[in-house]
Amino acid sequence: MGKSSEAHICQCLSLLSTLRRNSVVTVSGNRRKTGEEFVESVMGLAQGLLQLGLGPGDVISIAAFNSELYLEWLLAVAFVGAIAAPLNYRWSYEEAVLAMEVVRPVMLVTDESCIPWYSKLQLHHIPSLRRHVSLDLPSSDFLRTSSNVLSTETIKKDSVGDAQLNYSWAPEGVVMICFTSGTSGRPKGVAISHSAFIIQSLAKIAIVGYGEDDVYLHTAPLCHIGGLSSALAMLMIGARHVLIPKFEAKSALEAMEQHKVTTLITVPAMMADFVLKFRGIETWKGMESVKKILNGGGGLSSELTKAAIKLFPQAKLFSAYGMTETCSSLTFMTLYDPRIDGRKLQLVHQERGICVGKPAPHVELRISGDGSSHVGRILTRGPHAMLRYWQGSLPNASVSGDEVWLDTGDVGSIDDSGNVWLVGRANGRIKSGGENIYPEEVERILLQHPGVNGAVVVGIPDARLTEMVVACVQIREDWQWISTSIRHSVSKQMLQMSSEILCQFCKEKNLTGYPVFSPKTK
């Protein structure tokens, strides 16, 4: 069997042009496109790219707000066998240049969001760059930054409409380069395959329940692996896409009401913004339509989970754990399901760590340790794993015999039910008095105290202990920080908090008694 039997993200175009032919599949501002119109736009753009001489292995960077045009570019680039390298529109000029020096794009596609650094780019020569494209119709401000700018519409109009195309593949099956800074601080390009995206899409369809009747709100940017993977899953299943340029709680909630959104993804900060926006409001128009929410990028606190359920009472709430190097989610967990028990919440935060659920069907996980404990480094392997870092090192790997596993860099365990428990980051470990202490472990205990609203734990150099554990805590508004060495005027209405109180609390929770605490009030 030839290439035609291999995975390709553009295989979704057949479904969109047939089953969704006359149905609206994208809504972006005032623009609405049916499946037929969307596919025609992708094909016109792909033909235009071929006529410009672009093909397998060429890298095209895209830096823009979310829109249906962004989706079209991602698919058209993949169709001709080129590789999309999305850049974060929030980046500074310096960060954008560093990323492009890594991937060496031949074309840069931008919109108005990037004018500040795009204008500076004219003064910094990127040797590989041959063409600049405005995603939408370029404004006068945009044109002033460069006199040689193409537009998406110009490329489509110059294409040959009757040409019959078959999609192509880049070497190694790479389809996108997604950026992550990891622990280095510099952007690293993660090479991801067609197979990885398709398998990730199937996992989300199977576990979260994405379906063709869904109306999916793009809350996450398409430069982020979470936003990309859910977008492609929704394209594969034939759902409707509602695209807002960037996340703002107000515009997102308005879009939910206007378009009867059924599904979205969040990170904790987004959910907190939603909750804050609706503080004191008991009902709103979108309460009934939202049925599925997938949270990633960090766990939701119990307090935020309860607030989310109140705001979206009909929604099944999931959490996911993953990373760019694994094409998004490795594990999934149902936090709340209104159909089963409207009052029951999964207990996620416990002393042993944070439960992130069970691996997706395609994911192999194992714990690598020294044998002295059930806790160790979390390893994974399978078609979901990255191919390599672009123009750089191979991924962190653990080799056992002939087996090669991707090292996630996280430390955790797997219980008898197959649930994965995260303890912390391996490189964040603090060595204190001969003990290995994970900051996340201490933070979890501190957050169980009723007076603590937030906590960050770090290690500082210490002559005797090697490192001393220090916690900065944010106490709640009705608590007052006191020091036993200083006399305080304490309000009778205020509850008291001190380093001694917190140290005693940690000891009662069987936490090694090393922490020293510094107050931080809200």
Would you kindly provide a written description of the structure presented here, covering whatever features stand out?
The structure is a single chain. The protein has 2 domains: 3-350, Rossmann fold (3-Layer(aba) Sandwich); 429-521, ANL, C-terminal domain (GMP Synthetase, Chain A, domain 3). It is 27% helix and 30% strand. The protein has 14 helices and 30 strands. Helix 11 links the parallel strand 12 and strand 13. The model has no long low-confidence stretch (mean pLDDT 86).
How are the SSEs ordered, and which strands pair?
Blueprint: H1 12-18, E1 24-28, E2 31-34, H2 35-51, E3 59-63, H3 68-79, E4 83-86, H4 93-103, E5 107-110, H5 115-121, E6 131-134, H6 140-145, E7 149-151, H7 152-157, E8 174-180, E9 188-193, H8 194-207, E10 215-218, H9 225-237, E11 240-243, H10 249-259, E12 263-266, H11 268-277, E13 292-295, H12 302-311, E14 316-323, E15 328-336, E16 349-350, E17 353-359, E18 364-368, E19 376-381, E20 388-389, E21 397-400, E22 403-414, E23 420-425, E24 430-432, E25 435-437, H13 439-446, E26 452-462, E27 466-475, E28 479-481, E29 495-497, H14 499-508, E30 516-521
Parallel strand pairs: 1-11, 3-4, 3-5, 5-6, 6-7, 10-11, 10-12, 12-13, 13-14, 27-30, 28-29
Antiparallel strand pairs: 1-2, 8-9, 9-20, 14-15, 15-17, 16-17, 17-23, 18-19, 19-22, 21-22, 22-23, 24-25, 26-27
Helix pairs in contact: 1-2, 2-3, 4-5, 8-9, 11-12
